Amino acid sequence: MTASASAAPRPSDRPAEAGVPTLAADATLRFVRDGYAFGIRGYRDVGADAFRTRLMGRSVVVARGAEAAHVFGAGGFRRSGAIPRSTMHLLQDEGSVQALEGERHRERRALMTEFAEGGRGTLVSLFRSEWEAEVEKSRGVRVKLLDLASVALARAALRWVGLALPADEEKEIAADLRSMIDHAASVGPVNWAARTRRRRMEDWAGGLIDDARAHGENVTIVGRLAHHEEDGRRLDTAVAAVELLNLLRPVVAVARFVAFAAHALHHHPDWKARIGEGAESSTRWMADEVRRFYPFFPVIGGVATDPFRLHGVDFPAGQWMLLDLYGTDHSPHLWRQPDAFDPFRFADASPKAIVAQGAGEGLGAHRCPGELATSDLVAAALSLLVSGRPYEVPIQDLRISLRRIPAQPESGMAVIFA
Ligand code: HEM
């Protein structure tokens, strides 16, 4: 990986691949084997940017690229029934914004966007102070940035939604939020254990919603969720609790991008120097390149509510589709030298082309409302890493396996702060 200057990304001159060939009768084992590279290897094998296959016995279309992102992001794909229940229960849940469609989705999404986008300045400044406090505590000892950032982000998120908890409770909540992310793609006992923790968290969050209602507290994010009305009725306690977790959990998930940001700084010291010079654009470009380049969500799934057309082929309502996020962010038709880490590409490319956090525009889409907050948090982490307390990176395994979902630097990106 080198940080070479390159011209702006532009769609390649190659015409869009026509057709949606069949990859294999059932590709479940390939998915398990290839992880994030599942789509990329499939497109190579069929010679197109989309293919049909079966996963766990179910017919699916897997696709990357601008057309696929446009088709998928335009709406018309429901999320319920589109990802395994084991994952659904750790990340989202029935009745939550992601499981809704149509008018009810738009209304709930407007509220979540107001919190995630409108409130991101406060979140970032809370994160900065929690980070600095954690760094001071860790001086002189080897610490994994993935752990340190998770704790700092969890504390910041709890204060952001309006909670002041005893240190012990905060620690437990931080660990539970982290566990939902770490085990989202797991199956069997590990997943069940994480789901048990999740249910415990839902009970805890439900208690907070009840308390806010009992005390008429409607100022903080917890209070506003507790008093939010749809069709003239307050949300069910369980649904408001899930939405509270849908704000807390992904903030903690940003810790992976923070660890990746440190990984990128380590491998590209020239960018450390650029950010150190204080140019805001360098920090922003690098934050966006971290979100594009490093693996996070491999795919997002949807079940078509209407017939749709992709690469000249018509598909019926009911068709299951996976939009390949990693494959799109690494598509040679969209990004020049997609496998090179090169923040300069954002000098004249829009970060909106990144699909790491979903596709689509506006209130009707399911695209992540926390995208700007994520970008701001990663930018803040980059400036804290470059201009904050100096650190060294001890010898460790810095490889990132594309088979491990969610991915991370093998040794958690360990550092020692001076
Ligand atoms: C690590 C950073 C993050 C990643 C990788 C991420 C990823 C995603 C993706 C891929 C989706 C779209 C799912 C789909 O279309 O089916 C999504 C939706 C969502 N994200 Fe994020 N997200 C992140 C950070 C955040 C943050 C910081 C927040 C809030 C503070 C947030 C809140 C949400 C919500 C509420 C949805 C559901 C939106 C809807 O269905 O309309 N995310 N996220």
Explain what the structure shows.
One of its GO terms (biological process) is sterol metabolic process. Pfam families: p450 (PF00067). This is Cytochrome P450. With 418 residues, this protein is an alpha+beta fold. The chain has a single domain (37-417), classed as Cytochrome p450 (Orthogonal Bundle), CATH 1.10.630. Helices cover 49% and strands 11% of the residues. The chain has helices spanning 28-34, 38-46, 66-73, 85-91, 102-118, 120-137, 145-160, 167-182, 189-214, 221-227, 237-267, 269-276, 280-293, 325-329, 371-387, and strands at residues 50-55, 58-63, 77-78, 142-144, 229-230, 233-234, 299-304, 308-310, 313-315, 320-324, 391-392, 414-417. The strands form four sheets. It has a five-stranded mixed beta sheet, sandwiched between helices. It has a three-stranded antiparallel beta sheet with strand order 4-12-11. Helix 8 packs across helix 9 (189-214). Mean pLDDT is 91; it is low at 1-17. Protoporphyrin IX containing FE is lined by residues 79, 97-98, 109, 112, 116, 246-247, 250-251, 253-254, 257, 296-297, 300, 356-358, 366-370, 373-374.
